[in-house]
Amino acid sequence: MSSPAGPERPPRAADRIKVWFRPAPREGRPPYTEGLWATRLGPDTARVDNAPFLQDGVAEGETVRFRTDADGVHWAVGRAAGSGNCTVRVLPLPDGPLGRDAGAVHERLAAYGLTGEVFSADFPLIALTVPGGADLRGVKELIARGRDEGWWHFEVSCVTDAWPAA
Q1: Which terminus of the chain is more solvent-facing, meaning fewer CB atoms within 10 Å of its CB: N or C?
Q2: pLDDT averaged over the chain?
Q3: What is the model's pTM?
């Protein structure tokens, strides 16, 4: 693909950084940080390259601002631009019909174009990116059905303005 400025170049390894987030405290959770891979866009901005497992209010593809501390750690300080994507986290119930099978969760949601990653085999929490052009109503209905039928627990951690209306 090319743009008026010329062909787009793939990100170099030097452009890939880890941006760290300090989530707001939540009752019952100890303080923690989460690092998300990102592609550096400028001296203090980067595009998030994966869905967060813990951080609320950010989705894959969003541009965030960061500050780099004296140790070279990049700390998120805010969102510079949205991506149009949403983030949903799903945890399959061990005693449910899908068991702890993260692959079975992905299969149920694949028709909607959702992508994501699994925290670990021992803790199969799946952080999903819901693309901006996805059938949001269908996604919402399916994740609610999965909860109601005992397949999984879920939480929606980042939405666009289109999500509530879907």
Answers
A1: N
A2: 90
A3: 0.85
